[in-house]
Every structure is written in C-alpha cells, then in structure tokens.
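Sharing a chain and its predicted structure for anyone who wants a worked example. Both blocks are below, sequence first, tokens second.
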Amino acid sequence: MTDTLVDFDVVLTKYDPALGLEVHVELNTNTKMFCGCPTAFGAEPNTQVCPTCLGLPGAMPVVNAKAVESAIRIGLALNCQIAEWCRFARKNYFYPDMPKNFQTSQYDEPICFDGFLDVEVEGEVFRIGIERAHMEEDTGKSSHVGGTDGRIHGADHSLVDYNRAGIPLIEIVTKPILGTGEKAPLVAKAYVSALRDIIVALGVSDARMDQGSIRADVNLSLAPKGSEKLGTRSETKNVNSLRSVERAVRFEMSRHAGILDAGGAVLQETRHFHENDGTTSSGREKSDAEDYRYFPEPDLVPVAPSREWVEQLRATLPENPALKRTRLQGEWGFSDLEMRDTVGAGALELVERTVAAGAAPQAARKWWLSELARRANDTGVELADLGVTPEQVAGVQALVDAKRINDKLARQVFDGLLAGEGTPEEIVAARGLEVVSDDGALSAAVEAAIAANPDVADKIRDGKHAAAGALIGAVMKEMRGQADAGRVRELILEKLA
C-alpha cells in the first residue's frame, strides 16, 4: 500500500512533532560484554564465539570492566547522574539473532540517567534531555538471501552471524524532544552528530555509522497543534547516517500527517528506512516494556561504582567537541565556512596537530583540505589513514616558510613522504628539490627569458609590470620550478628598469 504523504510545510500548520532518539554505540573494547571473545570487525562469520555469547547451557557471564568504565565516561560527558548501584536485567524475546532468547541489558536501574546535551541549529540552541544511558549486549547479524532488497520478505533463506552477539553496547535514550517545529529533522541530525563527536573524542568507539558501530533509532509522533497529549509514535530502526536521520524524521512527519488527515490512527510499530529513496516501510508492531518480561539477571552481580572512581573518570574527560571547535576557530581566525569545511573533511584534529607542530593554521588547513584530501580521495582512504603525519606536514611547511622550497616543490615532497623516502629534509636533499637562490644562475635564466620574449620585455619597460608573470613562468619552466620566484621578479624588474 502506498503511503499518503502531506507536504512538509503543510504538516507544520496542523501538527507539532515530538522526537525521541535511541542511539546504540558499540564500544571498542577488545573483548565482548560478558565473555572473552574478540570484537574485531570483519572476521569470518561465527569465528568469534564461545559458549557464553552463544547462550549454551551452563555458560556463565562476567562483566567487562572496561565497558563499565566507558559507560560511566559517556554518562559524565552527557551531564548524567551516575548510579551508585545498578544491575542487569533479562529482556526476553525470541529472534534468530539472539541465541539465548533474551538480551542481557538494563531496565529500571541504568548506570547513567538524567542528563542533557545542547545542540545548535541555525543559531538556536536546543537542550536535548537524556533519559538514560545503559549497558547491554549487541545481537547477532541476520542476512536474508534471495530477496530483492535484503529484507526477510521474499528471501529464500536467512543466515546468522553471531560474531556481533555479545559486543558491548551503550544505548543512549533521550527524553521526548518537543518544541522543534520545522527544525525537527535538523535537530535530530544535529543531536546524533554532536553525540558521535563526543563518542569519538572520548575514544570509546570508532563511531563508524557505515559499519554499524553507532546506530540511531528515530522515534516520531505528531499531535494536533496546541495539544498537551503526545501522539502515537513510530520507531524507525537502525538509521545509519546523519543525512538519513534527517530524512527519516521528515518522511515520518509527512506520513503520520497523511494518516491523521484521513481520520486514521498511527500504528505503534518499528519501521525500516530505505536509503535509496528516503522512505520507510513497516517492520513489526512495537512491543511495550511489559511484553519483554524483564527480570533481574541472576547470573551477574550488581555494579556499584565508587564515587572516587567516578571522579577519577571525570578527570579523564576531553574538552567538549563543540566548545573546542569554537575555541579553535577563534584562535585560528577561521571563517565559519572554513571551520565547517575543516570539520566536514575530518581534518580538525589533523590541522590541530599540524599547528601544534609549528605550522600556521591557514597553511595547515591548505595542505590537508587540498593536496592531501585529493590524494586520499584518489586512493579511497580516510584522510587520517593516508600515511602522512601532521608533524611531516608541519615539516614541509617549515621548508616553504624558509623559502627552501615552494608550493609546487612541496607537492613532490609529499610524493616522497607517501613513498616512504624519509623526512621532508631528506627528501628535498635526495631529490634535489631545493629552490635556487643564487643570483648568478637566476640572472642567466632571466636574461635568456628576456631575449626570448622581447615583446613582453617591452611591455615591462613601458611600466606594465604585471607582464612580468610571463617571464617568471618562463624562468620557472627552465629551472624545473626550483627558482626563487620572488627573486626572479626582482631581477626582471631591475634589468628592464
């Protein structure tokens, strides 16, 4: 059945949206939440499993201490209260990717609760209340074979990989987000983006949405404007990009409005998001908490972090990424556009380290966002994985600043760095790239260029100094780009005065 959609602007004239976001973060611990199995991404299916994470009879779980530490640090970064005592619970449901037929999670006693995160959208700050951040284990991964879209409907058979079953997760659940109006899609996107930045800064996860290490469930409901009662919500599951979070909110608002305008009732259900066209489709009717028959996990002792430990962990928190960006922008003198492009390219930390190594901010930004970004794109790798360090970039810029090389020669130095030929200094020496500043050699090249271009020389004699560029280019070509362009210009103007 085709959904009836209402134009987004029309939706806003009749209804108020309410958002709720549940973000699952896979922690980067070396082992799983309750056993010693490795957690490396991309291993052969079902090679990282044991009796505990497969739920075999008699297997006993043990809590991963590093996962507890990461949970507390996440909670502190989100301004949460940290429970003095909490415990795990069994969330019971049958699904093929849950080998135990229950998920070990936390229910009414989460480790972190009652926090907030401020996000800015188009100059307006929205405070997103955090209901809870709790520990749990991930499920396995189902692959449906034989269908047209990878979904179970129409598939010939399904395969289950349990490598992911038991990987530590932190689920971060917001309170209802109200009052966002037309900015609801952007607020949802900004929140997940800010949350991902915090997770990366904490170093507790690589937060790769494309690999599923951070996934967002987008809850949305509509209520008639001015109503004090929330509408029935839908939950779009496992949205795996920032753009898709925004699109999912926008589509669901239009879909809900179509149902309500027709006098229908929105079904409380999970939905699948489709990347190809930005739509959602029905998954299954959404269960309420009582349907999961939660009860305390009998095989795990409660977790009771001491206040001293919590304060020790608080001292390890990095600077808030949003505040850090504001500070660095002011220190570096970047425009809003320059800062946005730097962040968008994933180059902020690289530029920061390059500046710390001695380069000017604009020079550091220039190399990372132009020459090095192009090379990363050509080779299909992330900028940080290109193989050139911030310290090396600062070394190249130091040679430019000292006028020992120019920007064109610097590109050849980067060739050498990527080829593993040594330090920037060593590459310049080995390749003979140093700029020629000797007046004798430069003077001869200038005179040859003047003799070969008499018409240009006449223009310069007549005071048209802009024409010197043509002679400078001829000299640079003759000297393979190694002439001191500034000194060449001076010699040209002296000889043609």
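Comments welcome. The mean pLDDT is 89.
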